[in-house]
Amino acid sequence: MAKYLCGYCQRDISGLRIRCAECTEFDLCLQCFACGVESGPHKKDHQYRVGRALGAAAFDIPAPWCLAEENMLLDAVEQYGFGNWEDVSSHVETRTQLECEEHYVKFYIQGNIGKATFPSDTGSKITDHTTPAGGPLSPSITMPLPPLDLPPQEQQELGYMPHRDDFEREYDNQAETLVSGLAISADDDDLDLNVKLSCVSKYRVRLRERERRKRIARSHSLISTSLIPNKNAKTPNPKRKFAKEEREILEKMKVHTQFQTSAELERLQETLLKEKEHKTKIKEMSELRKQGVTLLSDVEDYEEEKYKREKRKENRKKMSTLQTPKRNSSVSKKAEGKVEKLDILIDDDDTKDDEEAEAEDSKEMASMPGYEMLSEREKRLCNSIRMIPANYITIKTCIIKDYLQRRQGLPVKIRYPSGMDKTHRRKIMSFLSDNGWIGVA
User: 202 pLDDT band (50/70/90 cuts)?
Assistant: First the structure.
């Protein structure tokens, strides 16, 4: 915004200014105008107009408001309230009521500031439990259950009446006998009325229990499962067969089934299984960290070296049991030192023998069927766990197939080859998960 300078003292004009109506673009500050100064062609008896010196403006409009006016407008709306434009304009002083209202609505309500301040969705999130006169109290709370969507044959088998949403035989079917014979007469005293009211209260308690059981049966899909099974009909949602770990978790969570729906229970079970798997993975990673393994790329090398080390220990035990006689207590320390040196030499020989045996195993495995179908990482995995390529391909196919069936919601019955080591199965599962073949359960 342009600044106004006094034509006589050359100072910046803030607030009101005096503009000469006869000279071109000649302004005076109030002090110089009061002294009656004259400069060049300007004379003190010239006609003049009173104007206002504007500073920087917040909005680029033809008739801009200075920052001081914007601050006074906001302060006035906060002090006097929105809509009280008479007091607001009195506070701003330089603007009328209409100007204050239009400016505030245009820039602070309908403009970008208003869009960022006031949400567009102003609908009430409060549930209205009231109802028009003549209706039931709290309709959203006493709302009846929707009727069951059952074919006519199943309705007949269950004795279900959809228009009444009742069964021919309900839970506590004799509850209505409490109130079926009640009648209020003019001869009843206070004691009779209290007895009848207590009967009605008991009946309401039994009705609530019936309604609670009906809701549990619907939420857990117990009504459809109570039908007589048809051997020829295919069930759309066959019963899922759980693994041993899942069955253990279900047994522990049975106490909570009365408070949860079947969907919530399944979701809780899946979450607990994931938590258990993550804890197992964290434990394995912690053990690797203790052994000095800090990169995932070094895990395979560590497992391979660990397997070799265990293999050497087994070979050493076998050699000691077959070739080394039992030592008696009279063996001297010098002889024991010689034996230790001999053990070191045997370890070196075992290491060389293991390397040669590993090379021979690799050549032998390369000649087995299915070896050429494996990737380099899969070849290293088979070599590290000493597994035949054909067996690995079979186990890999079973794991991927079971994973896809589980994702589709189909029943899964995992059948691994008999005699398979759990450590090998865990390594294969971890390998497939790390390489993106399967996801985390």
Answer: very high
- In 3D space, the residue among 94, 91, 71 whose CA is nearest the CA of residue 17 turns out to be 94
Q: In angstroms, rounded to a whole number, what is the distance separating the alpha carbons of residues 149 and 153?
A: 12
Please state, in angstroms and rounded to a whole number, the distance separating the CA atoms of residues 88 and 98: 10
Tell me how many degrees the CA angle 71-94-15 measures, rounded to the nearest 5.
Answer: 80
**CA distance linking residue 176 with residue 313, whole number of Å:** 80
Contact 14, 2 (CB under 8 A): no
CB 85 within 8 A of CB 97: yes
Q: Which residue has the higher pLDDT, 324 or 303?
A: 303
Residue 99 has which token pair?
């100007």
Predicted TM-score (pTM) of this structure: 0.30
Amino acid symbol at 335? A
Which range in 170-174, 196-200, 259-263, 316-320 is most confidently predicted, on average pLDDT?
196-200
The Cα–Cα gap between 313 and 315 comes to: 5
